[in-house]
Amino acid sequence: MLIPLRDTQPSYSRPIVTIILIAINVLVFLYEISLDPYSLNHLVAVYGVVPDHLRYSTLLTSMFLHGGWAHIGGNMLFLWIFGDNVEDVLGHFKFVLFYVACGLFAGLVQVLMNPYSRVPTIGASGAIAGVMGAYLLKFRKARVLTLVFFFFITFVEIPAPFLLVYWFIMQLFSGLGSIAYSQASQGGVAVWAHVGGFLVGILLIKIMGGRDRYSRRPQLHW
């Protein structure tokens, strides 16, 4: 088991958008856990993505809902580790567009791969997968301090490409395996949203590019 803790890539601007996104997600989650079970189920049913009767507005609203402490904790950790550098590359405004576009596309991929599912899909992981895809393309020489659980527990600096490609392959194989099963049997994990978000993140960072003053810094890992 691998848990990334921080990366070695410096960021040269304040990650305002990343911080705001984390704050919004945390505040929404705190509201979720304040609800009684019936109200919470209703909230998820209304604002989560339900492929069998899709409402396109939920592709956006579902990105700010989470299913538990581990769900939001993992998502926000990954967003914090990789989001600041991608925001630094794109600039604040373009990063907002990038993040939302990745999340929307990821949701659509999940719907296309499970069109008749009635299980609500929620979470920011599709958008964050896009951030990870962009990070892979822009910071190939970066390393990530990772907590490793195997037969022992240790801290290791792992090359970012290895960690990100490993994560993507795990999602891809989980998605391929889920084709033979119902969405319910997979516990509602939106693995195809992860795959779709990751790939569109790579594509969008190529299209949107980066700020010139960022690319001229020789000490950055490109």
Blueprint of the fold:
Blueprint: E1 2-7, H1 16-34, H2 37-47, H3 58-61, H4 69-90, H5 92-113, H6 125-138, E2 143-149, E3 153-159, H7 160-178, H8 191-208, H9 212-215
Question: Which key terms come to mind for this protein?
Answer:
single chain; 222 residues; mainly alpha; Rhomboid-like fold; 3-stranded antiparallel beta sheet; 9 helices; 3 strands; globular
Radius of gyration: 17 Å
Instruction: Using the 3D structure, state the CATH architecture.
Output: Up-down Bundle
Number of domains: 1
Query: How many DSSP-defined strands?
Result: 3
Q: Can you list the strand order of the major beta sheet?
A: 1-2-3
Question: Span from first to last CA?
Answer: 28 Å
What structural category characterises the helix and strand content?
mainly alpha
Report the CATH C-level class: Mainly Alpha
CATH superfamily: Rhomboid-like
Largest sheet: 3 strands, antiparallel
On the 0 to 100 scale, the average pLDDT is: 87
SS strand fraction: 5-15%
Outline:
globular
- Percent helix, as a range, is 55-70%
